[in-house]
């Protein structure tokens, strides 16, 4: 039966309940903060295991150290971290029995790589004392473990190293001067075995009168006070014999600064003293020997590179008197940058190691002037092979150096001439190629009296434009280089200049079926410039884009204004630019790599002109590309202004005489205009002609068309004219007449054609009378019963 509750009791209960709820919420909030803290700790892997050892929680540190995500590891037994499951069960049992287990050992990550871990496992029990799980905390101590192992290894290696040193006596003293360690060098130099000397006072190694004077105690006192003591003097071996020793005593302190003993290093310098006497005698003999030599600087260095002798030749060549230079380091003769680079030490090191060092380089006289020197440094050793110094012989070869530089300059000039000749040959090829169809077209016009066919006129127009571009580019490069070009500036809308350039290059885009797109604002983009020159800039960029973009490719022109700049971007999805070529793309005569057919043409002048003309306008041009096959982009930047012609050429064609002796002629040329018009010309004067665009097509023609004459362009794509000539010879059923047709006409080009089996070598643009003469000079197989 319930007891009625007064209103006062209700208030008390409600107050207690409120406090209890607040405490519960506070504890829950505190637990949540603790949970978040644990989950976000990255330096420690903190997780909870259930009573069987399966993982129940997983924090960021655990994910970083063990490399498992939470989804991958929850519910997995912690034995996955151990090499053997039995070790895991052993650790859990030890933690359960002792209340806590702290251990270090190897653990495994997800990828089975191992790391050295500090692990603490603590059993978790409920209010009744029943086990409900384990807290498992891991820290990755691999780096510390490696450092400890490295330190132990280093200490052991150092001990072995010290013990194996034979040239130095290295041993330890306690604070009172008693010997604690003894290496092989000490045994060799002083004669005592370690079991004979360890525990005895180091004064036994000094002559009795020296030890009695208190010198040993003074040495230790100075070393303890100053950290180090060094001395040279007589010492005594076990057998009583004396030797001259260099001694270094070093005070040793622990981490608290307390003196723990001394390190003592002794070196037997008896032989060095003897060698010094012998060296002085040898130097005197050497001085008398070389004193009279004047054409060579001959002097001696000590092992550290300091000058000990000086002859008259050294004084004449280097400018120093003996009293000014002896005792100085020989680096004084070297330029400062060589001294900083360690050249002097390197030379002595090589001479000491290999016995000799020779070099030619610039050296410095006393007055600071430079001379070109031949230098030979030779190591000097005593009878025991010990290095006691170096001899140094220097000869002044400045006159010879100047002669070599003059010769190099001559060779460079000759190379420049060869480069010029190559350029002129290429220029002749490029100018002759477009002239060939022009001249042929003009000749056809003379042969055709009706004059109704306009194709010849179209050809002439296209080729004249090409020739004009090449010649104008060449002339403009020269004018700009000599500073004779003048801009006719005006405020112009750059959109108009770009439009006119597009109009000029449209036939090129149409011929290659390339897709073209322009993006420009509706408002004017005004610059202060020469419109004709800017049209030239954008026409060159558009021509470059068309040239290096495949048929049906895409070309984009984008115009925009950014603050005080007008930007014109010409983009394409063509062949792109190699990273190595990109920084040089605007240099004179630079082009992408091409084959013998030079299918892309050009002189490498267009982009040079673009850069120079843009610079004259106070602007900049930049080339960008992600490499071969990723297209190109050229960006022209011109200063913005915030406000608002044709040439003709006449070419006379040579007269043509009709040749009545008809021939079957195979004509191979990849230039369609040149091939078609030359074929029309040959047909017009009575010959049967079959044309082919490349070597493979020409070989196919041979199966049904058996020509008497083959006129072959040398610069064919894929298979050049030389290879094609050889194959025609192999397949032809009779002795066919081979005529080479090329834009290259230097003597070596003609000689190469002869070696390839051609009967004649004609240069583009071909002289029709000469071609008819060459063809008629050889009788056809069926002439007169042939």
Helicity range: 40-55%
Number of strands: 24
Class inferred from helices and paired strands? alpha+beta
Radius of gyration: 47 Å
What is the terminal-to-terminal distance? 145 Å
- Widest sheet, order of strands: 14-16-17-19-18
Question: Averaging pLDDT over every residue, what do you get?
Answer: 83
Number of helices: 24
- Oligomeric status: single chain
Strand content: 15-25%
Could you describe the 3D structure shown?
This protein has 786 residues and is an alpha+beta fold. The protein is built from 24 helices and 24 strands. The strands form six sheets. Strands 14-16-17-19-18 form a five-stranded mixed sheet. Strands 21-20-22-23-24 form a five-stranded parallel sheet, sandwiched between helices. It has a four-stranded antiparallel sheet with strand order 1-4-3-2, sandwiched between helices. A hairpin with a 5-residue loop joins strand 10 (356-364) and strand 11. The longest helix has 50 residues, at 398-447. It is extended. Residues 594-601 and 645-660 have low confidence and may be disordered.
List keywords for this structure.
about 775 residues, alpha+beta, 5-stranded mixed β-sheet, 5-stranded parallel β-sheet
Brief account:
With about 775 residues, the chain is of the alpha+beta class.
What's the layout of helices and strands?
Blueprint: H1 7-40, E1 45-50, H2 60-66, H3 70-73, H4 85-98, E2 101-108, E3 114-125, E4 131-140, H5 142-164, E5 169-173, H6 184-190, H7 194-197, H8 208-212, H9 215-226, E6 228-236, E7 242-253, E8 259-268, H10 270-290, E9 297-301, H11 312-318, H12 322-325, H13 336-340, H14 343-354, E10 356-364, E11 370-381, E12 387-396, H15 398-447, H16 455-481, E13 490-493, H17 494-511, E14 515-519, E15 526-529, H18 531-547, E16 554-562, E17 565-572, H19 606-616, E18 620-624, E19 632-639, E20 664-668, H20 672-684, E21 688-692, H21 695-702, E22 709-713, H22 721-731, E23 737-742, H23 747-755, E24 760-763, H24 768-776
Parallel strand pairs: 14-16, 20-21, 20-22, 22-23, 23-24
Antiparallel strand pairs: 1-4, 2-3, 3-4, 5-8, 6-7, 7-8, 9-12, 10-11, 11-12, 13-15, 16-17, 17-19, 18-19
